[in-house]
Write a structure and sequence with these properties.
The chain has about 70 residues and is an all-alpha fold. It has one domain. The chain is built from 3 helices and no strands. Helix 1 packs antiparallel against helix 2. The longest helix is centred in the middle third of the chain and has 29 residues. The chain is rod-shaped and about 60 Å long. The relative contact order is 0.12.
């Protein structure tokens, strides 16, 4: 499983736990965790898009195969 998939699965599970939480403290804690996972996923998308935006020549140069 890649990192993005693992983050998405964690977010899904945490949203389920949040929807089932009953006490105020747990609800607030899980809201924070959901936001943190959402931010981490956003960062992962930015990282992946940055790496995918490389041209073939840039990629070859980066890999030392130019």
């Amino acid at each position: 499983m890649d990192h993005l998939s693992a983050l998405q699965l964690s977010l899904s599970n945490e949203r389920i736990r949040l929807s089932q939480a009953t006490n105020k403290g747990e609800i607030e804690m899980r809201k924070v965790w959901v936001k943190q996972l959402e931010k981490e996923i956003e960062g992962e998308y930015k990282f992946l898009n940055k790496n995918n935006a490389m041209s073939d020549d840039e990629l070859l140069k980066e890999l030392g195969l130019e």
